[in-house]
Automatic annotation (TrEMBL):
GO molecular function: oxidoreductase activity
Official protein name in the record: Polyprenol dehydrogenase
Chief place of localization: other
Gene name tied to this protein: DHRSX
EC number: 1.1.1.441
Biological role: Oxidoreductase that plays a key role in early steps of protein N-linked glycosylation by mediating two non-consecutive steps in dolichol biosynthesis. Acts both as a NAD(+)-dependent dehydrogenase and as a NADPH-dependent reductase during the conversion of polyprenol into dolichol. First catalyzes the NAD(+)-dependent dehydrogenation of polyprenol into polyprenal; polyprenal is then reduced into dolichal by SRD5A3. It then catalyzes the NADPH-dependent reduction of dolichal into dolichol. May also acts as a positive regulator of starvation-induced autophagy.
Superkingdom as given in the UniProt entry: Eukaryota
Pathway terms, separated by semicolons: Protein modification; protein glycosylation
Organism listed in the record: Alligator mississippiensis (American alligator)
Coiled-coil ranges from the UniProt annotation: none
């Protein structure tokens, strides 16, 4: 991994930072002297991750705040708790997720892949956006990084059935949630640019990583097309490298709206560049989570 400059005085939030890719992302940011907040839904795992990161990095500015992305109420409470700290926010890493779970709903009635992987992060990002805008400067932008997956290449976005109510498939629902994150990132960057905000939004593909998400997974035939390109699983630490690069690399200063794989800008699936689809998804997402659509003001 490249050597990045120290990040004195900077604050980062990493969702799902208690394990896997998120843990290694949080640890590396802490090693660069960032104040790191791990957002997760398990207190015990979160506090253990904080203890280990503090021990390994000798950085005491690491903490855990409960945030269940399957609950809009929990997300709102997390943002309130973070706000009480009255500290800036320079980096938001939307990393947490579920993968190929059986058909079930979140607390708010959303299909779990779409609700946790996408809508939870959509709401969290929007609620933290003002803090990010206030923390970014013209020469040092705040950054939003969302973790997607190569599976988005086979994903289809069903605007008339985002909850997969008519035909549920774990693979299809997972792929749709990851495609939605790419569309969201591009739309967010468009809105930030139109506002002249000192915030950038990029999406990363960690590759096929050996984490708990991959246990007991049987891949559908459609997946063979993309998984054969990555013949070996990466470790979670290797998988975190592109998230870390997106969060702190000077090369990406002021650069947004890109899809990154192996620290390189890469083309995402063609449909992800459909600006009308990006707009429709954004508007529908605002309705689903009950927030005002900032794009209507632009």
């Amino acid at each position: 991994m490249p050597i990045f400059p120290l990040q004195h005085g900077k604050v980062a939030i990493v969702t799902g930072g208690s394990g896997g890719i998120g843990y290694h992302t949080a640890k590396h940011l802490a090693r660069l002297d960032m104040h790191v907040i791990i957002a997760g839904n398990c207190e015990n795992e979160g506090q253990e991750a904080v203890r280990k990161i503090k021990e390994e990095t000798l950085n005491e500015k690491v903490e855990f705040i409960h945030c269940d992305l399957a609950s809009m109420k929990s997300i709102q409470q997390f943002v309130q708790q973070f706000g009480v700290k009255n500290c800036p926010l320079h980096v938001l890493v939307n990393n947490a997720g579920v993968m190929l779970v059986p058909e079930r709903k979140t607390e708010d009635g959303f299909e779990e892949h779409f609700g946790v992987n996408y809508l939870g992060h959509f709401l969290l990002t929007n609620l933290l956006l003002d803090m990010l805008k206030q923390s970014g400067t013209h020469s040092l932008n705040a950054r939003v990084i969302s973790v997607s997956s190569a599976v988005h290449y086979v994903g289809e976005l069903h605007l008339n059935d985002l909850q997969s109510r008519y035909s549920y498939s774990p693979h299809g629902a997972y792929a749709q949630s990851k495609l939605a994150l790419v569309l969201f990132t591009y739309r967010l960057q468009h809105l930030l640019t139109a506002e002249g905000s000192s915030v950038t939004a990029n999406v990363v593909d960690p590759g096929v990583v050996d984490t708990d998400l991959y246990r007991h997974v049987f891949w559908a035939v459609r997946m063979v097309k993309w998984i054969t390109s990555w013949l070996f699983f990466k470790t979670a630490e290797e998988g975190a490298s592109t998230s870390i690069y997106a969060a702190v690399s000077p090369e990406l200063e002021g650069v947004g709206g890109t899809y990154l794989y192996n620290e390189q800008r890469t083309k995402s699936v063609d449909v992800s560049y459909d600006e009308e689809l990006q707009r429709k998804l954004w508007t529908e997402s605002c309705k689903m989570v009950g927030i005002s659509d900032i794009s209507r003001c632009l």
